[in-house]
Sequence to fold (141 residues):
Amino acid sequence: MGSSEVLGILVVDDSPIIVRKLSMLLDAAGYRVVGTAANGKEAIAAYHSCKPDAVTMDITMPEMDGIEATRAIISEFPDAKIVMVTSHGQEKMVLDALKAGAKGYVLKPFQQHKVCEAIQNACKRIVLKDKLDEKIEHHES
Fold:
């Protein structure tokens, strides 16, 4: 993936206002919002249909929460880059989400640079991990 490619983001939140805010923020930062979903079930379906480069995933949603959705997406797409969106006081849930395979998190209210940083880190981390594994293999051989 070249650096000139615009990252496509799937925005998942049960609040239409948050979806709009995040979409505008991501748009302004040069990302492309490729889809939105209002709960975990929709998030899984949307992930299938729009194959985003990264996902912002709200934790608390009706029907299926963000942790369950993250688990489901990661089990099917192990390299999915999911960034959790959380309010203060949800630390334990954030840990559960990270265990489920999320690559990071951002706190509401959003700060543009924090959101972008989390997405960039999520998308980079996988590459760095591969490089690390390579280095480790070379040391062992």
The CA atoms of residues 129 and 135 lie 10 Å apart.
